[in-house]
């Protein structure tokens, strides 16, 4: 009877020990450093999910409106009508802002040239083509930078969260070993809880990092495709505003 009872008691003891490895026990046994690591991971997780959702919505809107804006610009009967359509686009729509900057540069160059009566410093230093090119470069750089919002944070979370979680694990195990050494109790019940709680920090770090890494890679590829569209549209705009016609395809003549 004694030989049959001992394993049962040990199994029961081990089962009871495993019940103390949950998230609630982890929170209950936090020391100051544990709280710092936990709060840091929570903040990083919320921040990364905020930018994941925000970037997903923004990129979806940009991609869905891109062809409509571009085709709408080339499909208008006059430059003035095209500009009115561009001004009616939402504030965050990048393609319309690039085209409006090019049109504004043309108007500014014409006014400055007329005011200088053909001999002003602006007319001498920058040709119409150079002036438009500079405006387009600035507009593309500005809109590209806006698409980068949150990317640095996602990269930071993805690269650092696992190590922060590992720090919590290492510190938790060290802290647990000190308690075990001080109590002199090395039973399964005494060891399983603190060690299991410490390992949860590594898992929490991975759960924080993995979505950030996946989102960063996805948005990075999506942004590169949008940058290519920016460049293509900017080149077409430069040809149109500098020469009055689009190099590829038929474009309306300026009025």
Topology of this structure?
Blueprint: H1 2-18, H2 23-28, H3 32-75, H4 79-87, H5 94-115, H6 121-125, H7 128-147, H8 151-183, H9 188-243
Gross geometry: rod-shaped
What is the number of beta strands? 0
Order of helices and strands: HHHHHHHHH
| Proportion of strand residues | under 5%
What's the helical proportion of residues?
over 70%
pLDDT < 50 stretches: 1-11, 249-255
Major sheet summary line: none
* End-to-end gap: 104 Å
**What average pLDDT do the residues reach?**
79
Strand pairing plus helix content: what structural class? mainly alpha
Structural Rg: 31 Å
Count of helix runs: 9
Question: Describe it for me?
Answer:
This protein is mostly helical and about 260 residues long. It has nine helices and no strands. It has helices at about 1-20, 25-30, 30-75, 80-85, 95-115, 120-125, 130-145, 150-185, 190-245. Helix 3 (about 30-75) packs parallel to helix 9 and helix 5 (about 95-115) packs parallel to helix 9. The longest helix has about 55 residues, at about 190-245. It starts with a helix and ends in a 12-residue tail after the last helix.
